[in-house]
Amino acid sequence: MDTTGGEVAWRFGAANPALAAASSQSIRALVTRMYGCVDRSDPRPLAPLGHGDPSPFACFRTATAAAEAVAAAATSGKHNSYPSAAGVDEARSAVASYLSRDLPYELSPGDVVLTAGCNHAVEIMMAVLATPGANVLLPRPGYPLYEARAALGALEFRHYDLLPEKEWEVDIQGVEALADENTVALVIVNPNNPCGCVYSSDHLAKIAATARKLGVMVISDEIYDHFAFGSKPFVPMGVFGDIAPVMTLGGISKRWMVPGWRLGWIALTDPKGVLRKKKIFDSIIIYRGISVDPAAIVQGAIPQIIANTDEAFFTNAMNIMKGAAEICYQKLKGIECITCPHKPEGSMFVMVKLDISYFDGIDDDIDFCSKLAKEESVVICPGSGLGMKNWLRITFAVDPPLLEDGLERLKSFCLRHAKPNTKQAI
Q1: Which of 166, 316, 323, 359 has a Cα at 20 to 30 A from 308?
Q2: Of residues 282, 250, 254, the one with CA closest to residue 267
Q3: CA-CA distances (angstroms) from residue 315 to 63, 103, 172, 204?
Q4: Cα–chain-centroid distance for residue 111?
Q5: Is the CB of residue 379 less than 8 Å from the CB of residue 46?
Q6: What angle in degrees, to the nearest 10, is found between the helix axes of 89-100 and 296-308?
Q7: Pairing of strands 169-170, 378-382
């Protein structure tokens, strides 16, 4: 130790390589980078088509009953204490009843663990599964937080493809080819971020049968539960929990339009009890005991949020979202260099393919999105952040007039940067 007043040789400051590996998978960092390209002197309103948060728009404001429930919980004085590791009992019971509506069996409060949003649920599951040598199978394109959390815990991840020509269904044969004796879980997202598809009951049954054949659990990310507005209704993966054990991840962020409230859950949709026998539930509780809690006030409000939200709120929200998806699809069809392989039927997103050969002076999807943000104040997520180079992820969870305006600016940008011999007629 230096006590002479000279320069101190500080012993900290080395970068954590695991954190660097996780950061390389961060979609938030990539989208933030796109926002950084926006010209703040542009008088036009920013069109935020890069991330799924509709809450700033009045047309997507949460249900009055939900806001009142949180206010009542805050003023009651009953929810100022530390909650238990698994969550407030009444809240767990309310979530169990909510999920049981769509299942052929009843969940108990003991089957539910509350989390600080669905992202926290992802973190927990990737940490719990990160045993030496294990690997998990993740969708491509997918939600990169899975990769980031796996990388941080030194859990190997392998990508299986979603098939755009088959409405973004899981490549079952590809899953079977990827798996080995160290594979522990297959992750699906349904309704799907980023593709906007909703899986049929038949397809989910095939996924369950594949998981059983491989001896792995299914982690079903259902944060967009009931966010379906096309030809196929939402079916929870837990319906097939008697075929293969299913860990269901969810929350109120999307359906109630309140991502900032940070209330999610992990549910054991496993009627045969395989996950308990294999001590997965015990590991989840251990992890919850050393991690953050969802806000006690929001936990206290959950029973009333679920019980008092009128069905008309959900119906209206889905009608607006369906209209926005239609606007998005029709506008994109009118842009020659963009191909939309499947009309979105769920979640808040659509994946589209970008024809880079159409452009003069644009190198790839990241370059495209950077210049689009700067010139048009339109932010879109590059597909490279999802493992899909020269694709784009676009959200339509935006006030419809702003969505239309943003997509018109996108078209103008494409025309302006097109090679002379490829420009379409305006």
Answers
A1: 323
A2: 250
A3: 12, 21, 33, 25
A4: 22
A5: yes
A6: 40
A7: unpaired
Cis peptide before 109 (omega within 30 of 0): no
Distance, in Å, from the CA atom of 328 to the CA atom of 333, rounded to the nearest integer, reads: 9
Q: Is the dihedral of CA 7, 11, 15, 17 positive or negative?
A: positive
Using left for φ > 0, alpha for ψ between -120 and 50, and beta otherwise, residue 347 falls in: left
Residue with tokens 């996108």, as numbered in its chain: 410
Using one digit for the tens of pLDDT, what is the confidence trace for 305-355?
A: 999 999 999 999 999 999 999 999 999 999 999 999 999 999 999 999 999
Q: Average model confidence (pLDDT) for the chain?
A: 95
pLDDT single digits (tens) 26-80: 888 899 999 999 999 999 999 999 988 999 999 999 999 999 999 999 999 999 9
Residue-wise pLDDT for 204-217, tens only, equals 999 999 999 999 99
Spatial contact of 249 and 110, defined as CB atoms under 8 Å apart: no
Taking the C-alpha atoms of residue 85 and residue 287, their distance in angstroms, rounded to an integer, is: 9
Q: Is 189 helix (H, G, I), strand (E, B) or coil?
A: strand
State which amino acid sits at residue 25: Q
What is the spatial distance between Cα 416 and Cα 61, in angstroms, rounded to a whole number? 36
Q: For residue 335, what are its two tokens? A: 């842009």
Peptide bond into 141 cis (omega under 30): yes
Chain Cα centroid distance, residue 129: 19
The strand pair at 264-269 and 246-251 is best described as antiparallel
